[in-house]
Design goal:
Blueprint lengths: L1 H5 L1 E2 L2 E3 L5 E9 L14 E2 L10 H20 L8 E5 L6 H7 L6 E3 L6 H15 L4 E8 L1 H8 L15 E2 L2 E8 L5 E7 L14 H20 L8 E4 L3 H14 L8 E3 H5 L10 E2 L1 H17 L5 E9 L3 H5 L6 E10 L6
Parallel strand pairs: 3-4, 5-6, 5-7, 8-13, 11-12, 11-14
Antiparallel strand pairs: 1-2, 2-10, 3-9, 3-10, 7-9, 10-15, 14-15
Length: about 350
């Protein structure tokens, strides 16, 4: 019972054995390469189809390459993995399952919409911290063309995008987590609750997700006794310009001021890139930001504490067409630099 108490702080999870992120990888598409985060990516692919016949197959290539690069960066082989947790946006998470068929590791497929990257990391960190795995991999992907075809319209129809629309990020990000001493540790995770505010417009993803992000962030601060200035950077997954403004307002009403440490990865991803609406979205949005900007800034000791809150709009094209609303969810992980660990 004492062990359970040690690992729970209010409703959040604390990892006393400090599972370490020992490597990351970020493989991004050409549009993402035009944004300000491009210099933090391991690879920017010039062809978003990656030489494949369909965008769905291209997305698998992004995910597989992200896995290969992450393992190479960690100095590991696929056989060294004790668990692989993967997810994507497509029905039945087919990108993850088809990719997992090529990787000789026990596999768990997860779906949290655009919150999947942090959901996967929280699961892997929990398993490593508890001793169920020594080495685990969390990987997520998304693809603009594949997501548009599933959730909205095939891009061939050339439907005019609304001003509040977000642009699905093409790419994949992977993190290798180990029980050994590494440069960046996962210290806590706050698992989100599903919140449904009744929004039914698939072009309003930021407003649909913002209440869930506010709830997760507020609970994290209450559980840990921290304030936003404890962190050098707080970054949400993909609320975009509209949703991140709503988030600030919702938290301010509850007495929490995010201040200058807060940024949104969706807004950052395509900052200054024409034709991308109010920012990026998709599983790869938070994954690329976390494995690129956040992780590499921590390796360089430019920041020492970060809180990543990946947000997900649980949109189903089937239920949306039946008039149902779009629930939201957000998961958070706290990351800290481990002093003295080898990089």
């Amino acid at each position: 019972m004492a062990d359970v108490v040690q690992r729970r702080v209010g409703g959040s999870l604390r990892f006393p054995n400090r599972p370490s992120i020992i490597a990351s990888s970020t493989i991004a598409g050409p549009m993402e390469g035009k944004g300000p985060l491009a210099r933090w990516f391991d690879c920017v692919v010039e062809d978003d189809m990656f030489g494949e016949r369909t965008p769905e197959k291209a997305e698998r290539r992004f995910m597989r390459d992200a896995i290969d690069v992450a393992l190479k960066n960690a100095g590991l082989e696929p056989d060294d993995l004790h668990i692989m947790v993967a997810g994507d946006l497509l029905n039945q998470t087919v990108t993850a399952s088809f990719t997992a068929a090529e990787v000789p590791a026990p596999f768990m497929g997860v779906y949290g919409a655009c919150s999947t990257s942090v959901e996967g990391l929280a699961i892997v960190a929990s398993m490593v911290d508890a001793g169920f795995a020594d080495v685990g991999l969390s990987v997520t992907s998304s693809h603009y063309q594949a997501a548009e075809r599933q959730f909205r319209y095939p891009i061939e129809l050339n439907i005019q995008r609304k001003s509040t629309s977000q642009y699905t990020v093409t790419g994949a990000g992977a993190l290798v987590v180990s029980s050994g001493r590494g440069p960046v540790v996962v210290t806590e995770a706050t698992i989100g609750k599903v919140i449904d505010m009744g929004i039914k417009d698939p072009n309003q993803m930021g407003p649909a997700m913002a209440p869930a992000a506010a709830d997760t962030l507020y609970r994290h601060f209450v559980d840990t006794g921290r304030t936003p200035d404890y962190y050098d950077m707080i970054i949400t997954g993909d609320l975009g310009a509209v949703g991140s403004s709503i988030l600030r307002d919702l938290l301010q009403r509850r007495g929490v001021v995010l201040g200058d440490v807060y940024r949104d990865s969706g807004a950052l991803m395509f900052e200054g890139v024409p034709g991308t609406g109010v920012g990026g979205s998709g599983c790869a949005c938070a994954a690329l930001t976390m494995g690129g900007l956040i992780y590499k800034k921590m390796l360089a000791n430019e920041i020492s504490r970060a809180l990543v809150v990946a947000t997900g709009a649980l949109l189903s094209s089937l239920t949306w067409q039946q008039g149902e609303s779009i629930p939201g969810v957000a998961h958070a992980v706290a990351l800290e630099v481990q002093p003295g660990a080898a990089t």
